[in-house]
Structure prediction request, 216 residues.
Amino acid sequence: MGYHGGLIDGRLGEQGIVYDGMPLIPGEQPTPEALRDVRTRIAAARGLHVRSRAVDAAINDNFTKITPGHVIANELGRPRWLQLHQARSHPRGFVYPAGAWTRAVAHLREHPTWVAESWSAAALYGVGDFSDGADTAVYAAGDRSAPRTALRAAMRRKPAELPVWAVYEYGARLHVTPPMLTATLSTVSAAGRTRVADAGAAMDPTPCAAGGAGRG
Prediction:
């Protein structure tokens, strides 16, 4: 059985609400910076080697890692009380300094073949209210497992028939599940279930791999 949400997805696109190929609008969400770019910028400004200890110290003092290869400036992180409050409800106690939109963009930049799904896809569409304290969720090839640290994404094996939309972040093409599939997966995730029967998508989003937030 295949995906059955295409008609509603098309209507949303016709109305310009969300559509395949739409540009991402961060709103108040900070845009992640590639760690290598931050390292290069600091080294150039101080006349240092990019791998010097002084550059490492400057990064550790002023930036927070949100994925293996991306950071945000410390002052752009979410309120600490909110991070800790949401971590108490997280099954592994992960603390997320950055919201779902920022983390999803960072992960998808690092892995162009990944597809944001569930709450992470919803965040990219502008609905981040329930996702900022949750793991980044993506479809990708890999073995089944939950993220081991907050720097990693929760991955599910991508079904062959899965429809995929593209969104653009400053010209970079990122992949995301279409709206009805996103809504279905978010509902299933919220209910604590592991299989989708037929509420917009008849496919098996069986979780597969990808690990704590830190600085560096």
